[in-house]
Design a protein that fits this description.
The chain is of the alpha/beta class. The protein is built from twelve helices and 13 strands. Strands 2-8-7-6-5-3-4 form a seven-stranded mixed β-sheet. The chain has a four-stranded antiparallel β-sheet with strand order 9-10-13-12, with helices on one face. Strands 1-11 form a two-stranded parallel sheet.
Length: 363
């Protein structure tokens, strides 16, 4: 008997699995598995959200006009070159749906964000992985994979789950070396956590190029992960094409109003950054002192590598910490079976995870 079947390639997609939020037998565990802001969100964002409770019968502004104007002003961008989505994930979805046809390919690093592959495969494209020596994006490795069917190169800067960065001159070299009809997409979800003043996030480069899109999110620094707000900046023709297939009311009213308030609350943003900048080097030093390798991170998390020795593996460490109410992310799905990604938390969380790892290794 005939029945509906998915199009080619859909059943080959490995569904995205988020960081764990529960631990068996533990009430209210500490979640250090999803790179959420441990301070929550701006109080002003909460107030703005509450103020929309009486507007639930209204459709949202399909252009997110007020938020569009605020983002454009803050980052000195042209408003008509912005697109807003249900998280930056939707912007990636719009890019692949707009620019890929079956048989095309996209390229990312071997430890690239999983959504790059999922969105490519959903559009019946091929995802290609470029080697990342020392967990860093390598421009030459990417360029070696480019062919006449390449349509998009995705990089996250800083990377997820690595936390490493690609220097500005290397991004420019990559942009200069790509064919003009290949989009370079720079995901800046963790850009704000970089404390190097010389870091280049791609926005300046994108201003004068016809094939660069830069994306950002309100989920990390601003603590609005529950509301799903992201945006992209790119060439007018690219944004216009994506806008034609974007769902007309994709960013809801509470999300738009909370994001607008969060963007204006610089005091909360600074507190969030200072927390990360204080505890990121401390965690790196303390965990390194336990004999574990820590990849230098510019994001709000650290990537820790474990031996494959039975009794000391990453999977066993994750399970051990979970029993203590500390949830971290095993990143085997990223091709790193011997690593854990740990979000930087409040002081007691950071100290707790170090002590938990010390106990695990000393068993």
């Amino acid at each position: 008997m005939k029945k509906p079947t998915p199009k080619d390639g859909i059943l080959d997609v490995e569904a995205y699995v988020p960081g764990k939020a529960k631990a068996e037998g533990v009430l209210n565990p500490v979640k250090m598995s999803a790179n959420e802001n441990p301070l929550g969100c701006s109080p002003q964002a909460s107030i703005a959200l509450a103020s929309t409770a009486y507007r639930l019968a209204e459709y949202p502004d399909p252009r997110a006009s007020a938020l569009r104007a605020a983002v454009a002003e803050k980052y000195r961008l042209e408003p008509d070159r912005l697109i807003f989505g249900c998280g930056s994930d939707e912007v990636f979805h719009l890019l692949t749906e707009t620019f890929l046809v079956p048989g095309d390919n996209t390229i990312t690093g071997e430890y690239g964000f999983l959504q790059f592959a999922i969105r490519t495969q959903a559009a019946q494209g091929e995802i290609r992985y470029a080697r990342e020596p020392n967990y860093r994006v390598d421009v030459d490795e990417i360029l070696a994979l480019v062919d006449e069917r390449t349509r998009i190169v995705f990089i996250a800067n800083p990377g997820n789950p690595s936390g490493t960065v690609l220097e500005g001159r290397e991004i420019e070299r990559l942009a200069d070396s790509l064919p003009g009809d290949v989009l370079l997409v720079i995901d800046g979800a963790y850009r704000e956590f970089v404390d190097d003043a010389s870091f280049q996030d791609g926005l300046d480069l994108a201003r004068g190029r016809e094939n660069i899109v830069v994306t950002r999110t309100f989920s990390k620094l601003h603590g609005l992960a529950a509301l799903r707000v992201g945006w992209g900046y790119g060439p007018r023709d690219v944004i216009d094409a994506m806008d034609r297939i974007r769902l007309p009311f994709n960013v809801n009213i509470p999300a738009q109003e909370a994001a607008l308030a969060a963007l204006a609350d610089e005091e909360f943003q600074q507190r969030s950054l200072q927390l990360v900048w204080r505890w990121r080097p401390w965690l790196t030093q303390q965990i390194g002192g336990l004999g574990l390798e820590v990849t230098p991170s510019a994001a709000n998390f650290v990537l820790i590598h474990f031996p494959a020795t039975p009794g000391r593996t990453a999977a066993e460490a994750e399970a051990f910490l979970a029993k203590k109410g500390l949830l971290v992310r095993h990143v085997a799905s990223y091709g790193l079976p011997n690593a854990l990604r740990i979000t930087i938390g409040l002081e007691e969380h950071n100290r707790g995870v170090v002590e938990g790892l010390r106990e695990f290794l000393g068993r």
